[in-house]
Amino acid sequence: MSDASRQIQTPGARYRYVVLAMLILVYTLNFLDRQILGILAKPIKEEFGLTDGQFGLMSGLAFALLYTTLAIPIAWLADRFSRVWIMTAALTLWSGFTALCGFAGGFSALFLARMGVGIGEAGGVAPAYSMLADYFPKSQRARALAAYAFGIPLGTAAGALVGGLLAVHFGWRTAFIAVGAIGLLLAPVFRLVVRDPRRGGADMAAGDTTTVQAPAAPLSQVIRVLAAKPSFWLLSFGAASSSVCGYGVALWLPSFFMRSLGLTLRETAWYYSGIAFFGGVLGIWLGGAVADRLGAKSKAGYPLTPAVAFLISVPCFLLAMNSGSLVAGLGGQMGGSAALALAFGIFLIPTGLNLAWLGPITAAVQHLAPAPMRTTASALFLLINNLLGIAVGTYYFGLVSDLLKPAFGQESLRWSIYTGMGFYLVAALLFFLASRRLARDWVD
């Protein structure tokens, strides 16, 4: 069957949710393979003799270097050819390189393997954004993209739990090989189930069955369109500022739990996976639902929703980061397990609030360019977001932890994370400014 005949002209409601489920599953593996390094930091660092800074460099720059730069040409292809085929190839590639991480003999080999993971994942997100915009109408788009973003907490939680437990019983190498194999098995299933929707189909009038589609625009034209819109830059750099802290915390929080709360690797796997799952899913869904409701009245609601969430999350996160002192202070009175449970509950609040931006902002970006430009526009947004968020965020926290170690010793990572909270305040400011321009830049 040809790709043209496999395209959906007017997708039914039931099938669009099947596609959404498949895209969430692939995105879960995307983040599982991306974030599994966090729970495996301790055994990898011990075997290879790495500092926090070196580990952060490998986790961030190795992945982001090609992940961000290749996303643009891959998105250019996705605006012209089958997005399903591109995502299938991407899933196969990043899963294969994830498995190869388990055979790395040293820092350089693992660095190169993580670069390979980045090459594959470069084709995994922007085409999915574009497909969801073509499957779901505008009134449901923020919620659909928020549901797609469930892959982030699901993948982070699965990476922590599965990776941690496999590392405890079989070693960190087996963890990489196992999760890579899962992706290789899913790739052909994804190709068989998911079909490309007509580009811009969800924006057309009900009952319109025309097959004529606007041609994909050249990259230079997409850049010119977006460059003239201040809201694109404000949304992109706002998301990047939040991602510096978001990616950094996601990588280093398991190490913080082991160093400052005294948890074992097994305990951290369960503890952190629960925080990532429950906090992340609730925050992402509420962010998308609130933004859809506010956005129906005013486009400013899309960036204002996460701006307020960040302002609330910073003091909550600082309280959560002091949960070590809370555990120590309350442990003798209420028992260590009860104190850890209280700390768990506190961490859920900022974890959810800090992910509330995903549905609203990605939905808003989809409306800054016409349908034939959406994949490339998403890739340009992701280029800014991930180049700063992944490459800077993971390395920043590791480097600052090394610099603060002479003064704070084992607690240097805690103070490193404290300094990163300022990035959330910058994100809130940029999203607030974007809310004042978004309506003028919006494309229906």
Strand content: under 5%
Assembly state = single chain
Bulk shape: globular
Major beta sheet, specifics?
none
Number of strands: 0
Q: What class, by secondary structure content? A: mainly alpha
Distance between the termini: 33 Å
Mean pLDDT: 84
- The parts where pLDDT drops under 50 for at least 5 residues are 1-5, 205-212
One letter per element, helices H and strands E, the order comes to: HHHHHHHHHHHHHHHHHHHH
Alpha carbon gyration radius? 21 Å
Summed up, what is this model?
This protein is an all-alpha fold. The chain has helices at residues 13-39, 41-48, 52-78, 83-101, 107-121, 126-135, 138-148, 151-170, 172-193, 219-227, 230-260, 265-297, 301-321, 323-334, 336-353, 358-366, 374-408, 412-420, 422-435, 438-441.
Please, could you describe this protein's structure?
The chain has 444 residues and is mostly helical. The chain is built from 20 helices and no strands. The protein has helices at 13-39, 41-48, 52-78, 83-101, 107-121, 126-135, 138-148, 151-170, 172-193, 219-227, 230-260, 265-297, 301-321, 323-334, 336-353, 358-366, 374-408, 412-420, 422-435, 438-441. Helix 3 runs antiparallel to helix 17 (374-408). The protein starts with 12 loop residues before the first helix and ends with a helix.
